[in-house]
Automatic annotation (TrEMBL):
Residue ranges annotated for the Helicase ATP-binding domain, each copy included: 26-192
GO molecular function: helicase activity
NCBIfam families (UniProt xref): recQ, recQ_fam
SMART domains cross-referenced by the UniProt entry: DEXDc, HELICc, HRDC, RQC
Top-level EC class as recorded in UniProt: isomerase
Source organism (scientific name): Parasphingorhabdus litoris
InterPro entries according to UniProt: DEAD/DEAH_box_helicase_dom, DNA_helicase_ATP-dep_RecQ, DNA_helicase_ATP-dep_RecQ_bac, Helicase_ATP-bd, Helicase_C-like, HRDC-like_sf, HRDC_dom, HRDC_dom_sf
Reaction catalysis annotation: Couples ATP hydrolysis with the unwinding of duplex DNA by translocating in the 3'-5' direction
Family: Belongs to the helicase family. RecQ subfamily.
UniProt name for this protein: DNA helicase RecQ
């Protein structure tokens, strides 16, 4: 059946084959079955409704949450000759669009959910031949998703009113809860779920601690050619880094929400057209940008979550050629993120904490980064991928389970309220006032860590915090987190990456 679409795929889009699950999704759509397609960014979701839009009689109605996104999509649809229009409050050609729609002259119509759910829109669609409802960013319909939009809940009556028009929901958000909820909310059968693999094998992941970021970025930019994106945490940082890169002779621009719209647009257009420009941007940059040949994405600070990291690094190498993702993180990023947690609603606190701990697990991992990412999205990947920093160059790790147990015991015995400094004093048997005055020299954990192990106490406590075996109390002390139990019971091991010893000195003597 899909063979019939191949000539159209070639003549309209210039592609010779379907990619990934596109053929599965399109088969269902062409058979007029309801479908939820979970496909990562860059997998080619738009094609799944654009192709049916030109292949079938009638109009495909696309529900999309953001006007800016819609206009981007409109431009790319029109660029390949699809007859498309948007119907939003920002359009002043609404009368014309409505006339084209009624005359059957539109392949694609983009509308926002709040408009789509109105009486007026329903009447309009009744006078139109509709071939498909495509619901983009479908996770917005679920409260489990990270971006719930109540307007999406109003779509269901519209969909049910046109019960014989098939539905295609699309999202890049993968977790199971959200998927199940989307199916229920949009009335799509369980067997209509199609999930694309999340692996992006051509992206090489590397994650390292920040040590002289300017130098690290300069090295990266010098080594890697082709267009690249560097995500920086603040507007100020984007401009500073862009300046520094520009000074090395590589073309570089900054992009953030504080720049005048015309500057932003120009920088974005220049980047899209360029072959070796570096865009230093806040996360405001990237959504809806169609540039398949981005060769690297770097993070100058910790991303918001594993999902965000995956999404942002996913902008590299969409053409399938080798690409790199680099993250430079610092312990202070985690401190700041934890600080932000204190402002989070009680309700969301747990899931936000889990998100942060998962991110901690990724950056501190000694094993395959890709395996961690894919497991996070519910896949069962092989243990090593051969194309990430840890697979290519295994870090030296040290098993510190015994020390971690001692540390946790000390946290427990002292009442789960002291900070790492005090715990270290107790564990190493320092006869200090604060220890003696509390009688902590009488505890069984007093003086059980020898001088050889003592320097590992701080890294171990950090690692326990990252994996949620420890949490900070309100007053800066440490208390148990949910992962503590398994370690104490001997069910989980703790290993830390051995910091490279005196690397600096070696380098200095080497260069002299
Ligand atoms: P998504 O919306 O899933 O993030 P897009 O629809 O923007 O992804 O597509 C990502 C890129 O992949 C675009 O550059 C698109 O032109 C390209 N693409 C989509 N389908 C194919 C295909 N079958 N063959 C080659 N390239 C494709
Ligand atoms: Zn790997």
């Amino acid at each position: 059946m899909l063979e019939n679409l191949l000539p159209l795929l070639k003549s309209t889009f210039g592609f010779t084959a379907f990619r990934g699950v596109q053929d599965q999704v399109l088969t269902r759509v062409m058979e007029r079955q309801n479908t939820l397609a979970v496909m990562p960014t860059g997998a080619g979701k738009s094609l799944c409704y654009q192709l049916p839009a030109i292949a079938s009689d009638g109009t495909v109605v696309v529900i999309s949450p953001l006007i800016a996104l819609m206009h981007d999509q409109l431009r790319s649809a029109e660029a390949v000759g699809i007859r498309a229009a948007t119907l939003t409050s920002a359009d002043d050609n609404r009368a014309e669009t409505i006339a084209r729609l009624k005359a059957g002259e539109l392949d694609l119509l983009y509308a926002a959910p709040e408009r789509a759910s109105g009486e007026h829109f329903r009447n309009l669609l009744e006078q139109t031949r509709i071939s498909l409802f495509a619901i983009d960013e479908a996770h917005c319909v679920s409260e489990w998703g990270h971006d719930f939009r109540p307007d999406y809940r109003l779509l269901r009556p519209l969909l049910d009113h046109f019960a014989d028009v098939p539905r295609l929901a699309l999202t890049a958000t993968a977790d199971k809860h959200t998927r199940d909820d989307i199916l229920v909310q949009l009335g799509i059968e369980q067997d209509g779920l199609i999930i694309a693999g999340f692996d992006r094998p051509n992206i090489r992941y590397s994650i390292s601690p920040r040590k002289g970021l300017t130098r690290q970025i300069a090295d990266l930019v010098e080594r890697l050619s082709g267009p690249g994106i560097i995500y920086a945490p603040t507007r100020n940082a984007t401009e500073k880094l862009a300046d520094q890169i520009a000074k090395t002779g590589r073309s570089a621009r900054a992009y953030h929400a504080g720049l005048p719209p015309e500057v932003r647009q120009r920088n974005q257009a220049d980047f899209v057209a360029s072959e070796d420009m570096v865009m230093v941007a806040t996360i405001a940059f990237g959504m809806g940008i169609d540039k398949p040949d981005v060769r690297f994405v770097a993070h100058a600070g910790l991303p918001k979550s594993i999902e965000a990291y995956y999404q942002e690094t996913g902008r590299a190498g969409r053409d399938g050629d080798p690409a790199e993702a680099h993250m430079f993180w610092g312990a202070e990023d985690f401190a700041k993120a934890r600080q932000r947690l204190t402002e989070v609603d009680e309700q969301r606190l747990n899931s936000e904490r889990t998100r942060l701990a998962a991110l901690g697990g990724l950056v501190e991992a000694a094993g395959c980064r890709r395996a961690i990412l894919l497991k996070h999205f519910g896949e069962e990947p092989p243990q090593s991928c051969g194309n990430c920093d840890n697979c290519l160059n295994a870090p030296i790790t040290r098993n510190v389970t015994e020390l971690a147990r001692k540390f946790l015991s000390a946290v427990y015995r002292t009442g789960q309220s002291f900070g790492v400094g005090h715990l270290e004093a107790v564990l190493t048997g320092r006869q200090e006032d604060k220890v003696l005055s509390r009688g902590h020299d009488q505890l069984s954990v007093f003086d059980i860590v020898d001088t050889e192990e003592a320097p590992l106490i701080k890294p171990v406590s950090r690692s326990l915090l990252l994996r949620d075996a420890l949490r900070n109390t309100e007053h800066g002390g440490l208390m148990f987190g949910p992962e503590a139990r398994a370690i104490l019971k001997g069910e989980a091991e703790v290993a830390i990456v051995e910091p490279p010893k005196r690397e600096r000195k070696k380098r200095r003597s080497g260069s002299s």
